[in-house]
Amino acid sequence: MKVKKILVSQPRPASEKSPYFDIATRYGVEVVFRPFIKVEGLTAREFRQQKINISDFTAVIFTARTAIDNFFRLCEEMRVTIPDTMKYFCTTESIALYLQKYIVYRKRKIFYGSTGKFDDLLPFLSKHNKDKFLYAVSDVHKDNANAAILDRAKVNYTKAVMSRTVSNDFAPEEKFDYDMLLFFSPAGIDSLMKNFPQFEQGDIQIGCFGASTAKAVADAGLRLDLEAPNPKAPSITAALDLFLKEQLEKAGA
Questions:
Q1: Are residues 101 and 177 in the same domain?
Q2: How many CA atoms lie within 13 A of 231 on its CB side?
Q3: Residues linked to residue 205 through DSSP beta bridges, in sequence order
């Protein structure tokens, strides 16, 4: 079956230089960006139920921009004054730069990793081991692995849930006429099955990024046709490019 219309279960890229647009042009396919899940911030009342006092902490760990948004929103709603001495630890430079939306970047102590891996923060966290860290997470955060890293480093931290991931439901009149679906988290698979309880895969191709998402596909009784990363493709776009190239070659054979 020829793939003509692909649903990417993520928001549309901010830059037109995204590989998805090159792929769409190269293979003559339509790429639609439609998240299956969305992040909702907790209310101040919900956050208080965790009995966490943000003022008790001297540093914050962020792994996503949404975590930054929700942290500063909650601080404002709860009238928490963030001292200029607060330290910020981010998994990537882009996340760190996003802090400029809320603080004077050059006047703050900000640290970030070079590869995006949580482990990259360890040297910085260890160097500041006298600090008390607030780890801003969502309700479906990658808790086990990251918490294990913090525990091994003997970091004094407290997890603070600041948002929840919910299904981004399809409207009754919304078309679902895709030849391929790309997923990036188990929550996306859960949302698919919630929206379409009688979903039958048939000829629809399913691709995913990450081992946990691949497991969720299998657990849902679905067929996985494309998985990244793999030895030939480190990213989902690279895997998609190879998949469509092979499809084109087969059609021309």
A1: no
A2: 0
A3: 180
